[in-house]
Hints:
- By secondary structure, this protein is an alpha/beta fold.
- The protein has helices at 14-19, 37-52, 67-79, 97-104, 114-117, 123-132, 148-158, 173-181, 200-207, 209-213, 233-246, 255-267, 287-293, and strands at 8-11, 22-27, 57-62, 82-88, 108-112, 136-138, 164-169, 187-192, 217-220, 276-281.
- A six-stranded mixed beta sheet has the order 1-2-10-7-8-9, with helices on both faces. The protein has a four-stranded parallel beta sheet with strand order 5-4-3-6.
- It is globular.
- The relative contact order is 0.16.
Amino acid sequence: MNEKKLHLQQINSTLLMHKGVSLHVQRDDQIHMLINGNKWRKLKYNLVQMKQYNKSELLTFGGAFSNHIHACAAAGKHFNFITHGIIRGPQLDINNPTLKFAKQCNMQLHPVTRLEYKERNNPEYLHELQQRFPNAYIVPEGGSNELAIPGCMELAQSLPEHDVLVCPTGSGGTLAGLIEGSNKLTQVIGIAVLKQAEYLKQEICKLSSKAATQNNWQLMCNFHDGGYGKFTPELWQFCQTMQTQHNLPLEPIYSGKMMYALWQLIEQDYFRPNTRIIAIHTGGLQGLDGLKYRGLI
C-alpha cells in the first residue's frame, strides 16, 4: 500500500494569531482516494499479516454507516480479495450510501441483530465465525488491534516538530499509535467522539505500553456533543465555516468534533503562547453522504 506523502495544511486565523499558537492539520483524508485516513493506517499491517497467514478473505464488523466497513470494502476491491461485513442490523438498507458502496466493491454483507453484534469481541463468538469463514482474517470493529498501532506510530514519527498532537478517538487505536510514536515531551490529546468514553483509557493502555507508563497523553471525554453520531447545529456550522474560510472539509462525527473541541480549547487559553499544534484529520468524509441520506445535514 503506497500512501501519498505528508500533507500538512496550516490554518491561519485571527484567533490563532491573538493566542500566539500555530495550528497545522495533517490531511490524512488525502492519503488514498478510497482507503484513507486512520483506516488506511490501521489496515496497512493487518493486510500484511493477512497475506502472511495465507488468508484470502477479510472479515470485520461495523454499523450501517461505518467508515471502517467502507475502507475494508475498498481495500478488498483494490487488492482483489473477498471481504465480509458483519453489519449491526437486523435489517439492511441497501440504499444507504455506505452499504451501497460496500456492495459495489463486492463485500458480502451479513446483517445480525444488535444482541448478536454485542458479541463481536467475545472469543467464543469469534471462534465460531472463524469456523464458519475458515479463509477469513478477522479484524475488529474500527480496526483497532495491535497491528493498527505501527501504522499510526509511523504517522507520529513522520511529522515535523510540534508540541501538541491531537486526534479524534472512537476505538482508541489511532491515539495509542500516536502515543507510541511520539516522544515524552509531546502532549498527545484524544478527543472522545462518544459518550462515557472513560473505558477507552484502559483499551489504549492495552494497545500501547507507553500509554501505560507515561503521563504525556490524555483522553478528553467532554466534547462528544451528545454522543456517537450526534452533533449540535453549532458543531455543524463550525464544520461549514472551516470549509468556507480555510478550505478544510470536515464531517461532524470525528474530525469535525476534534477541530471544534480544539478551537474551544484555544479560545479558553488551554495552550501556552508559542505552542505548535498538529491535528490529525482522520478522513471519514464519506460519512457526509450518510448524514445527507438521513436528512441530518
